[in-house]
Amino acid sequence: MKTIAKIGKVLLRILLVLVLIAAAYAAYLFLSYHRIGDQALTPENPASAEKEIRTGEELTITSWNIGFGAYESDYGFFMDGGHESWAWSKERLDANLKKIGTLLAEQKSDLYLIQEVDIGSTRSYQFDEREYLTAALPGLAYAWAQNYDSPFLAYPFYQPHGASKSCLLTFSKTGITKAERVELPIETGLTKFLDLDRCYSRQYIPADDGKQLVLYNLHLSAYTSDGTIATEQLKLLLADMQAEYDKGNYCIAGGDFNKDLLGDSKKIFGVEGAEYSWAQPIPEGTFDGFDISLVVPYDPANPVPSCRNADSAYHEGQYVITVDGFLVSDNVTVLETNVIGTGFTYSDHDPVYMNFKLGK
Question: Considering the entire predicted model, what is its pTM?
């Protein structure tokens, strides 16, 4: 009996220690949680950057969520049902980031909008991924906005995801005169520890007719309870764009909407059985009253998705969807848009592009 009592006391003490550790970690999460807020950004403008963007001429913009360089075709992320929580290795991350930079440079775009660029995260071995992309796109003006700065996530237990710092990175052949970070609303419950902070960045680029191109880089919320918060974020962005359009400026936004931009990607891409809360269609009426249009990269004759679910390595029949695209004000003429299909070789997203002209 004494032996049993001793064992009981030991187990009780172990349980108490575990409870104290859990309580201390919960306190750490709540005390360290913060939001970055609105910020003025500092554009980097090389001497070679053009002084004014051209109106009436065909221009190209490319947008890509690079998945912090980790989401190669054989990668599955733990928050999507997969196993991995970090990039495979430093060596593979380094090689993949270089390939991402090469593919971006090959597009020879006038503008680039890049999302999920880590600047010091456990999951990406503390790499500053901006260095890879600025090296791949030399001579372009750029600005970056920190999207989130999350505390240490001690899950999954076999390889804790850790702390994450990531940014939105915007490039332009024309000099950026002003750039700003604009905070977006997020959920206020425990989900905020998973969905992290959210923002969009706003860049001002002078046009040759005296107006400005206001360029927005966005990455809306994904890990939410029902997807409605991303709609609220979108409405805030639309109001911002409308205000700039009313001033006479040209407005283009692009990035990862975390919305089913086609409205029924399951049917279009033949994945009827899949349901994901982050992939809800944009509600009807969202654009009512705005002089802003949604531009979805889509060829009906050859539909190519822009994103896959990272529940495992990429395979035939996996849930795919188009969540990446653009918004334009009515004084921007869209000429062509589509997905640059790589088979999700470098990220769980493939790049999307849009050819356009400023003016009607």
Answer: 0.93
